[in-house]
Amino acid sequence: MNTSNTLRCVFSLMGMMGLAGLLAACGSEGAPSVSASGSGSGSASASGTITGFGSVFVNGKKFETSGSSFTVDGQSGSQSDLKVGMTVTVNGSFNGNQRSASTVRQKDAVEGLVQSVAADGVSLVVMGQTVFIDNTTLIDDNIPGRNIQNLVAGTDTVEVNGHIRQNGIIQATFIEKKLVGVTPEVRGFVNNHASGSATFRIGTLTVSYSGADISDMPVPNGSNWDGRFVEAKGTNFVSATTTLLATKVEPENQGIGNVIDEFQVEGFVTQAGTPNGNVIDFTIGTIPVRTTASTEFRGGTVDEIVVGAKMTAEGRFDGSTLIAKHVKFQESIRLEGDIETIGTNAIRIKGLPNVDVKVNSQTEFKNTSLSSLSSGNHIRVRGRVSNANSVIVTRIELRSADDDVDLQGPVQSITGDDVQILGIIVDTSTISNDNLEDLNGQVIGRAAFFNTVKVGTLVKVQGKLVGGSVQWREAELED
Q: How many independent structural domains does the chain possess?
């Protein structure tokens, strides 16, 4: 690593990496090639969710924090101010498989008044932003029962960390009630910018910036801010009109021109091109990503990189684009089978009794639409766990008629040869040893399979629908 160049280049690299916000990084000219095993040394950054402490773990990666500086919601802070589930950007270096953080920067997605809470407890509206909750969302203990249904709409104020998507959608990773020091603020993509009235929208929130500090923004001209990712802060939120009277609006992505040797980003796909073999250009948050012929795909295939998919990408940032060494799909649930019943927002699949497949406004449909689906159609589903036997669907694809049934998800319990996934008891005694496979698709046999499988392990089982039940024939560990 060229130390003198590194010292000269300290500059601010700001961008929304999924949700994580501001990234400050320092790269090097002639940076070394970094292997997946962690050899070499260089600059390192990761953007995503705090998954643990003892130093700081981001997306499962450990960064030593001795001597690190911390910024929490725009203010100088310390590691003790952070909590698991908060979204951060860590910037530093690596040497072999050891990573060290020079800065850790946390930013929330929205802070403001709770306007409504859904009756089913899976979403709420905060200052014009729709906040989705799933089984990975951590609720702070200052919310009674750690249950969002105990929040009082029109009275309580919350701070939400999470992954920002288009149209004012936030997938929450951490929610806490704000008791003091509330500053109404929101981060997201601008739409409906009208320079004449000095307003724009983020989700259903109208931001009025007349009199606000916009010195870091382009000069307003018609709708020229549309599509930009910004942060808007104010002192007054008018709930009756869902309007924020802003005191400051600033861009959250001012350009990327720095090399980062090892760079990881987690978030939702906001743009996606057309695949050419295994090569595709897409965007996670505001970060351009490109796969190559040698990119490793984990948990999905290139044609599943679509707007709205939650993903992690890791590789080398070349100054403009993250060249992915590997990409990983974060929606751990995969189902395939024939539709048994279909309602306005829920589907049941034959052979998978009591698994609630929930469709919402963010569900993407391929080769079909909800209104055109009917009982007997063969579908493939990708989604995430909502609760013990419920799936929030991110994508549904209509397939040709088939008797295949697939079930992929985290293991809930193990009793003898029985493995429980999404409430379905899978009797693996019907699966031959030759059809029990490891992460690489290699046969490992029954003993090795069950030595590896634990509660929480991601497993995919495949079978055939015979009559009204499934005969399970294959089981494979998944990453």
A: 1
Which neighbouring-strand residues pair with 90?
A: 46, 104
Range of the domain at 467: 333-477
Residue 428: which of 443, 445, 441, 440 has the closest Cα? 445
The 10s digit of each residue's pLDDT in 188-200 is: 999 999 999 999 9
- Note the pLDDT of residue 128: 96
Contacts of 358 (CB under 8 A, 6+ apart): 345, 346, 386, 390, 391, 392, 393
Amino acid at 429: S
Average pLDDT score over residue span 139-146: 95
Is 265:61 a contact under the CB 8 Å cutoff?
no
Rounded mean pLDDT, 105-123: 92
Sign of torsion, CA 261 253 46 411?
negative
At 103, list the tokens: 């800065």
* pLDDT per residue as tens digits for the range 439-454: 878 899 899 899 889 8
8 A C-beta contact, residue 377 and residue 339? yes
DSSP element (H, E) containing 272: strand 259-272
Task: Report if residue 135 sits inside a domain.
Answer: no
